[in-house]
Amino acid sequence: MKNIIRFVKNLFPGEPKKAFYLAVRCSDCKEKVNVRLNRASDFQSAFNAANPEHRYTIQKEIIGKNCFNLMKLKLALTKDLKVLFVDTKACEFLIFDRE
After folding, report:
1. How far apart are the first and last CA of the chain?
2. Which of 30, 60, 56 lies closest to 45, judged by CA?
3. Helix and strand element counts for the chain (H, E)
4. Residues in contact with 96: Cβ distance below 8 Å, sequence separation at least 6, in sequence order
5. pTM greater than the 0.85 cutoff
6. Which of 24, 40, 58, 69 sits a CA distance of 20 to 30 A from 33?
7. With contact defined as beta carbons under 8 Å apart, do 29 and 40 qualify?
8. What SS3 state is found at 11?
9. CA 19, 25, 28: angle at the middle one, nearest 5?
10. How many other C-beta atoms can be found within 10 angstroms of the C-beta atom of residue 77?
């Protein structure tokens, strides 16, 4: 058990950030929606032999406060949380705050 804990700590040196934020804009009404991402529940580990930089995948379904159009977002991230690609449906990706 101690080896597993040590291994996980080495993956994320220092105190890992637990929450991240992104913003999208609805394609229909143009409402900007801010979304909170939780590292423990929203980040899915990924491995792709064709693209070894791809480390995490995030998939979110988003509904705004005033607009009820379902927006979908899929992100692929590196180990350093840099965005590799974005796939959106019914929205425009604005920003991913990893700082």
Report:
1. 31
2. 56
3. 2, 7
4. 20, 21, 22, 75, 83
5. no
6. 40
7. no
8. helix
9. 145
10. 21
What gap in Å lies between CA 56 and CA 59, rounded to an integer? 10
Structure tokens at 41: 């529940």
**Per-residue confidence in pLDDT tens, the chain, 99 aa:** 555 656 555 555 556 678 899 999 999 999 999 999 999 999 999 988 888 999 999 999 999 999 889 999 999 999 999 999 999 999 999 998 865
Q: Which long-range contacts (CB under 8 A, 24 or more apart) does 90-96 make?
A: 90/26, 90/27, 90/28, 91/24, 91/25, 91/26, 91/27, 91/33, 91/62, 92/24, 92/25, 92/27, 93/22, 93/24, 94/22, 94/23, 94/24, 94/25, 94/32, 95/22, 95/23, 96/20, 96/21, 96/22
Q: How far is CA 25 from CA 38, 79, 87, in A?
A: 20, 26, 13
